[in-house]
Amino acid sequence: VRRKVRIIPSGARISFSCRVRRLELSLRCRSLFIAFLKISVDFIEIWQIKFLNLRYFQLKLNKIDPLNYTIKKRVKMDLGTVVGWALTMILLVGSMAIGVGVGPYIDIPSVMIVVGGTIGVMMVGFKMDTLKGIGKFYGIAVKPQLVNLPETIKKLVDYSTKARRDGILALETDVNNETNLFLKKGLSMAVDGNEPDAIRALLEIDMEQSSARHGGNIKIFEQVGGFAGAMGMIGTLIGLVAMLLNMSDPSAIGPSMAVALLTTLYGAMIGNIIGAPVANILSIRDGDEALEKQVV
Q1: Cα–Cα distance list, 247 to 241, 244, 256 (Å)
Q2: Nearest Cα residue to 271 out of 235, 226, 232, 230
Q3: Once rounded to an integer, what is the mean pLDDT over residues 159-171?
Q4: How confident is the model at residue 240 (pLDDT cuts 50, 70, 90)?
Q5: Distance between CA atoms of 135 and 269, rounded to whole angstroms?
Q6: pTM above 0.90, yes or no
Q7: What confidence tens digit (pLDDT) does each residue in 100-153 have?
Q8: 287: nearest Cα among 218, 223, 224, 230
C-alpha cells in the first residue's frame, strides 16, 4: 500500500510554530491579567473592611446607631453647571485659536487692571471673613447639597404617625439618628416638650437667618460681576488716554488700543461667566433649601 506523504514546506512549519508561540504568550498574559485582577479585588475588599470598621467605631463613639444611620450625601457634581462652563470656555478659546490665536488676547496690563482692581474693591466692600469663604460658596454652586423633598415628606409622615401611636417621647431615638439638621432641631424641641407655636417661631427665625446668610453670599458674586465690568471700563479709558497721548508715535497706538479693548473683554468675561451665573445658581439652591424648610 502506498501512502501519499504530504510534505509541509519549511515556511509553513515556521509560521505554524510562530502561531503556537503567540497563542502560548497570549494565554500567559491572560493568566497574569486574571491574577492581577484577583489581587486588586482582594486589596479593595481589605480596605473596604478597614474603612467600615473605622466608620462603625466613629458612629459608636458619637452614640449613633450604625444600623439606622444614613448620610445626607452631596451630589458629586452638577453636570449642568460644569458642562455649561466647559462648553463656554471651549467655544471662546476655540474661536480665538481659529482666528489669530490665543496669544494676542493675553495682555498683562489688562489683567492687572481688571483682576487686580476687582480683588482690591472687593476687599474694600466686604469683610475679610466673608471673602475667605468665597471658594466654599463657589463649591456649593458646583457640588450642591442634595435636597430630597419626597424623602423629607415621608419622614414627617412617619414621625407624626409614630408620635401619635407611641407618644412624642418615642421620637427620641429618631432625633439622634436624623441627619437633616433643621428637622433634627424641630424634633429635639418637640421631644423636650416645647409648645408648637414656640417651635414654629424658632424654626422660622432659623430659616430667615439662613436665607439672609445665603443672600449675602449671593451678593458677593453679583458684586464680582459689577466690579469686573466697571474695571473693564476704567481700563478702556486708560488705554484710550494712552493712545491719544501717543498719536504721534504709530508704534505706541497698538499696545494702548489693546489695553483699551482687552480690559473690556476681561471684565465682560468675568462678569458674565463667573459672577452672574454663580449668583443665579446660588439663588436657585437657596430657594430649594427654603422650600424644604417650609415643608418641615
Answers
A1: 10, 5, 10
A2: 226
A3: 78
A4: confident
A5: 19
A6: no
A7: 888 888 888 888 999 999 999 999 988 888 888 888 888 888 877 777 777 878
A8: 218
Which residues neighbour 198 within 8 Å (Cβ) at sequence distance 6 or greater?
Answer: 189
DSSP string, 174-188: HHHH---HHHHHHHH
Do residues 92 and 217 lie in contact, with contact meaning Cβ atoms separated by under 8 Å? no
d(CA 209, CA 203): 10
Residues 6 or more apart in contact with residue 118 via CB below 8 angstroms: 224, 227, 228, 231, 270
**Longest CA–CA separation in the chain, Å:** 114
Residue 252 has pLDDT above 70, yes or no: yes
Burial of 11 (0-12, 13-18, 19+ CB in 10 A): exposed
- Three cell numbers, residue 43: 486589596
- pLDDT tens per residue across span 32-52: 656 666 666 565 555 555 454
193: left (phi over 0), alpha (psi -120 to 50) or beta: left
Q: What is the rounded distance in angstroms from the CA atom of residue 180 to the CA atom of residue 295?
A: 13
- Judge residue 184's burial from the number of C-beta atoms within 10 Å of its C-beta, 0-12 exposed, 13-18 middle, 19 or more buried: middle
Three-state DSSP class for residue 112? helix
Distance CA 29, CA 114 (A): 58
**pLDDT tens track for 207-224:** 888 888 888 888 888 899
